[in-house]
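Input structure tokens:
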């Protein structure tokens, strides 16, 4: 090896590509081929044995993985630089290689001159990447820069206005007191309650709205985080007094402020009358029970349900109607503490006056009064409900069996489809792309030897045709088996599809991923294929400028919403035409998965496609994924696309 020549190792599992690269390097006066490898293990061994300056390596080879090989080469041969060469150009694969220290990433089909230049640049410790890959990898950074904004400023400017707007709709009187103890805000309830106008209340103090005897108590309400309701009297503008309940709190904002809530208790009697009317009009039996479990009141429905006259029930223990139940213990859990108790429901057994029993649903709700804490019991006979529930449970069991069979069928169907797609993609990568790549390299070597301009132009056109073929085959591999989908990233796979549509048609997109759950592999594949069908319709027929795709979690499932601003159409007219099966396929896929699909469109108004599928684990989720190491369809050691 000459002192100034760059030592190169070539690693590629395809013989035609490997030999074409070897001849290309031998044709360059400044490069020397020192080793060949056909898999990742041999690539690392050749780098250690020959200690080259550059290793040009196919990413997808058997017996190892590309990131691991790069790490091993950099650890054992620090002076060596690795240039990745692959039929794939997905962002995830590129970033993974760069993260472990690759000095370049080229897609197969790159002109021979660029490959040679990348090798020379790598030897100088300079970086190289295909232009289209660089643009794709930089796109997330541009999106992040456009999306940056200061959320804190937005919240800070609107927080206090939101509080005041909320307080203005409160069902009671509300006062906001400033740092100097002056009233800064009063809602409509306060103005009506005390007889003042807005301007008259401003700069007054809270003590001006209560009689002299309550002024000290009123001052104690201001500035505290929370105070319990306190019974006092309010004083109106004309000097008259009325019973009221005051409570205080703290209003969050840029300046410390107090908030005081005022309730007019003079309306309490009217409320009590309405409460009694509510009890009497209830379709269920209702009883009011004191803390010792004695019945204080009962409505007419109680008489009909239990067969007792209500006068006979007053003063009796509630156990006479609901015997041998844990009800009394539940009632005694409540006390007269400041903490507001919360109601609940129980299923008990009721007993009528003729000693017959029936299943009962009992709702237990607290009622705080001046005499103490009471309990409202709402009792409903659920005999028919339980019968209906039994019938429903049996029906649900049958539906579950049917659903499991449907899920098993769907899982096997999706598994078979994806396995076949994977086999086709592997065949394209391992055979067709490799042969065309070798042919392209041979063609470029032949062109360099031609001197006739006409012959060179013919060769240029032929080379462009081969490059176009490679590009379309790489896109076909992505369509058949997106790498993001293989790694469990549904949003990444959809983003790749949207990028393809943007490149081909100029349609801009917005992808919004708010799906927190991780779908099973079969469900993820079904979601992607269904969304792909809808987006193909956008690309072919919509003539849209923008498309918005959302992934949302809803009811233990995934909701996908695809909205475009295209020409729109009449769904009834289009779906009936021969050859327009895309929309029907979208609906059928969603229904087979146990979900639903909705399509809305009209001429001139764009189209919205929504479909939802459940995210339940398929019955055969334990089956190996297509082309996994445990799958019988993937021979051990075969390179994956």
């Amino acid at each position: 090896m000459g002192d100034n020549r760059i030592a190169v190792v070539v690693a590629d599992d395809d013989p035609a590509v490997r030999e074409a690269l070897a001849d290309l390097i031998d044709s360059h006066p400044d490069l020397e081929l020192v080793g060949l490898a056909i898999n990742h293990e041999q690539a690392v061994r050749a780098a250690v044995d020959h200690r080259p300056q550059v290793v040009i390596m196919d990413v997808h080879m058997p017996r190892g993985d590309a990131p691991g090989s790069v790490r091993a080469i950099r650890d054992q041969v620090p002076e060596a630089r690795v240039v990745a060469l692959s039929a794939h150009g997905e962002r995830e694969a590129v970033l993974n290689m760069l993260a472990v220290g690759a000095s370049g990433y080229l897609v197969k089909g790159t002109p021979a001159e660029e490959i040679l230049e990348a090798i020379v640049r790598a030897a100088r410790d300079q970086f190289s990447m295909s232009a289209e890959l660089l643009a794709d990898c930089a796109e997330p950074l541009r999106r992040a820069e456009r999306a940056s904004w200061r959320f804190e400023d937005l919240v800070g400017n609107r927080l206090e206005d939101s509080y005041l707007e909320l307080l203005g709709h409160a069902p009671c009187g509300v006062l906001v007191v400033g740092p100097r103890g002056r009233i800064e805000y009063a809602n409509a309830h306060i103005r009506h309650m005390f007889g003042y106008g807005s301007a008259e209340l401003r700069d007054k103090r809270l003590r001006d709205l209560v009689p002299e005897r309550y002024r000290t108590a009123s001052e104690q309400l201001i500035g505290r985080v929370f105070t319990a309701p306190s019974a006092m009297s309010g004083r109106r503008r004309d000097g008259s007094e009325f019973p009221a309940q005051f409570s205080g709190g703290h209003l969050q904002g840029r300046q410390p402020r107090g908030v005081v809530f005022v309730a007019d208790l003079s309306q309490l009697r009217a409320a009590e009358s309405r409460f009694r009317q509510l009890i009497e009009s209830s379709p269920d039996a209702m009883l009011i029970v004191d803390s010792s479990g004695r019945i204080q009141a009962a409505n007419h429905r109680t008489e009909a349900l239990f067969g007792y006259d209500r006068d006979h029930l007053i003063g009796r223990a509630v156990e006479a109607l609901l015997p041998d139940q844990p009800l009394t213990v539940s009632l005694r859990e409540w006390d007269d503490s400041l903490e507001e108790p919360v109601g609940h429901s129980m299923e008990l057994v009721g007993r009528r006056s003729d000693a017959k029993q029936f299943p009962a649903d009992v709702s237990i709700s607290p009622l705080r009064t001046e005499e103490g804490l009471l309990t409202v019991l709402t009792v409903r006979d659920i005999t028919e409900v339980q019968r209906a529930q039994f019938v429903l449970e049996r029906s649900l069991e049958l539906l579950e069996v049917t659903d499991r069979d449907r899920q098993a069928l769907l899982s096997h169907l999706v598994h078979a489809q994806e396995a076949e797609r994977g086999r086709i993609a592997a065949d394209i990568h391992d055979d067709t792309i490799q042969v065309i790549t070798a042919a392209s390299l041979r063609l470029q070597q032949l062109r360099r030897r031609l001197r006739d301009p006409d012959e060179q132009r013919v060769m240029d056109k032929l080379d462009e045709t081969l490059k176009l073929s490679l590009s379309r085959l790489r896109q076909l591999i992505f369509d058949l088996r997106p790498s993001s989908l293989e790694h469990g990233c549904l949003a990444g796979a959809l983003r790749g599809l949207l990028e393809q549509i943007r490149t081909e048609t100029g349609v801009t997109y917005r992808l919004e991923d708010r799906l927190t759950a991780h779908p099973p592999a079969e469900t993820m594949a079904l979601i992607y294929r269904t969304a792909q069908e809808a987006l193909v319709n956008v690309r072919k027929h919509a003539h849209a400028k923008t498309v918005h795709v959302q992934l949302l979690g809803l009811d233990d499932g995934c909701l996908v919403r695809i909205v475009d601003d295209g020409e729109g159409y009449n769904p009834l007219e289009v779906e009936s035409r021969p050859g327009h099966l895309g929309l029907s396929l979208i609906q059928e896929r969603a229904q087979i998965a146990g979900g639903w699909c909705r399509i809305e469109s009209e001429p001139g108004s764009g189209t919205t496609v929504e479909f939802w599928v459940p995210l339940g684990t398929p019955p055969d989720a334990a089956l190996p994924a297509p082309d996994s190491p445990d799958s019988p369809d993937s021979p051990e050691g075969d390179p994956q696309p």
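Confidence is low (pLDDT under 50) at residues 141-159, 618-641. The chain has 21 helices and 21 strands.
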